[in-house]
């Protein structure tokens, strides 16, 4: 195998991993802070991609489309949290599973009614459409580097918000002690809505920027949901650090799996998960 | 070995920087009630959890019947004959009283991988469960659903379930917690009766109750052992008097 | 597990009778559609078997598994892949094969995940069943995403004498009905026996079960394997019925549908999930006849069920039966329902 192939595949793996982190971090935040398991998280990823397909056709500008789509996704998150998730805070995980599964069915069929069941593509914006030369023999698509850079920047920003800011402190406090935060006179319900909307916006955003490379198709949400579960399981439930490490591991494993064992590429990340569980039954950072 | 049934040697438990229990060495002789008392946060509950295997000690040993049981899981400790009750009522609320005790009694079968015969048709199981109900004074309530009974009765059931596991040693975590005068005097009677057949470690808040039935006493403060020994001696220990009983009125 | 209230016993007996009588009168009532209905009823009962097994986990032991479809699908594949192309496989080979494959898969998965609980357990069961989905989806030996065909149904014969002809749809209907009935009785027996008492105890208070001297992990693992094996049995029946298996049968969405059946019917009651399978599939067919977007009303039903009917159909029936009988005697179930309602 040539060195340039190794480099390209590794870059692809990192890019996929960083994208996965956006999705998995929302999932793990919503669990860690609100103790909610959200199966519809993948459906929101799909909604992001379809919003991108729709809006970029409408306004004919990639960046403007993102600017319009992110608030829409966040708003959808707010609505879901206010009208459905709030009924679940004192309920068992079982009820959360069922309701968010029902939500998947609703979102999926609304998608089918509004946008149909065809596969669509979203064009890479002209500014980012070229490749750049990394070495003499190696060209790498600019857009993929853009994805990596944006995701890495968001990961860093998230880290800073959670570790350094007052809001982050409240959020972390809320995850360990609900009553305490309430005693400080902070409306925990507002925090929950905010966290859920942020999680929805993050995963939808991931769908938007992934759209040009992965295309836009009906089953994309459910597929990514399970991969995001694998990331969270490997990293440990509720741990952002774990989600980051897990996402990179899964991204690299999936990409290299497709190169090395194309026959069983789909299984590679699950084997990785099984191995991790064998040694760390609650994930790496539980 | 000595005639002790339970002994701890330098038993300690740290949670991070917090020393919940440090260096406790106590001895319990057969057929006596040994009480552990102390204010809130003294480490009594941690102590019970260390003895029953629910927590693993940071250092030190637990010796039961001459055998080192340090670090065994709760189910293993239970099978050696240590029966433990919980401070918060810890029963199966949708089961009837009898069913609660049947399940406890069933734990003494070699295993419960028995799929066809009804559990109450095993004569030994049924007998043990009924005896336990009788011993805790609930024979007449066998078919009442546990959740429908009064708080005091649920506490009695808690003890009955422990007895149904045929222990040789009882570890009771505040059996009178939250009880009224009348209810707790009934439990005191029950405990006095039990002490004829069982060795017993009792963690308790209720001073009157402790002094009326305990033979030996360990006083804990801030995770440490202030004194331990025969009731009268410990009661008159100046350190105990000062640190504990002196302002006892306020605390208890 | 207490005896079922009288009205519910009667209701179940009536349903059983109706089902048993259907093949006799179906042709008269449904005319041309009779054959279609017979097949649909058979396939619903097969799903009800999976739901029954899942109730042992979710309703009885408190373990929310989303892997039932994986064991269902694996057993079907085992039958299809192992059967010779132009001869029927003997049921005496097919049965242990299918049950063995699903039991082994459940055991291996169970060993890895049984220590986890709550959301983590749910996620890991989904992830592992997706792994098995990809195994059959990607593998050329299993026909990939197109699935695989079974050309000859298993042969039920002793010493060359055919006992049952599974090619015959009516025969298969009765085999499935009898299986469902027997499994229901078997699981109810388990629940009264020491094994079931421990599982019920684990659901209510696992810590106490451990303190009493049981190791809950062994019992949970056993329940997981039993439920997986039951799903495998259903998978074998399904592959026999349709002569076809596809990776979609292992998907986690299929597991989620089974879970919805269990909850819609009312978990923990064992008879509830059977009713739930009929209700879910009935709604499914009805919505599908109204609109191609049947998932929309179905999703709304699922959400509404969580909000309005957390104890399912069985809970409703038990409450009604309770109201009837409380006029005369106090039934032992009162506490159960009250307790559940409080939770």
UniProtKB/TrEMBL annotation, chain A:
Keywords: Amino-acid transport, Cell membrane, Membrane, Transmembrane, Transmembrane helix, Transport
Gene Ontology MF annotations: transmembrane transporter activity
Subcellular localization: Cell inner membrane
Family: Belongs to the binding-protein-dependent transport system permease family. LivHM subfamily.
UniProt-listed Pfam families: BPD_transp_2
Annotated Gene Ontology cellular component terms: plasma membrane
Coiled-coil portions: none
Transmembrane domains' residue ranges: 13-32, 39-56, 62-85, 97-115, 142-162, 190-210, 267-285
One GO term of the biological process aspect: amino acid transport
CDD domains recorded: TM_PBP1_LivH_like (cd06582)
Highest rank taxon of the organism: Bacteria
Membrane topology listed for this record: Multi-pass membrane protein
Protein name, entry field: Amino acid/amide ABC transporter membrane protein 1, HAAT family
Species the sequence originates in: Pseudomonas borbori
Automatic annotation (TrEMBL), chain B:
The organism's place on the tree of life at top rank: Bacteria
GO molecular function: ATP binding; ATP hydrolysis activity
PROSITE patterns, sorted: ABC_TRANSPORTER_2
SUPFAM superfamilies: P-loop containing nucleoside triphosphate hydrolases
Transmembrane segments: none
GTP-binding among keywords: no
GO CC annotation terms, alphabetical: plasma membrane
Key words of the record: ATP-binding, Nucleotide-binding, Transport
Signal found in the keyword field: no
Domain ABC transporter: 6-247
Protein's name according to its UniProt entry: Amino acid/amide ABC transporter ATP-binding protein 1, HAAT family
Species name: Pseudomonas borbori
Automatic annotation (TrEMBL), chain C:
Residues spanning the signal sequence: none
GO cellular component, one term: plasma membrane
Key words, A-Z: Cell membrane, Membrane, Transmembrane, Transmembrane helix
TM ranges: 36-57, 171-191, 217-237, 258-280, 300-318
Superkingdom of source: Bacteria
Pfam families: BPD_transp_2 (PF02653)
Localisation per UniProt entry: Cell inner membrane
Gene Ontology MF term list: branched-chain amino acid transmembrane transporter activity
Protein name according to UniProt: Amino acid/amide ABC transporter membrane protein 2, HAAT family
Organism per entry: Pseudomonas borbori
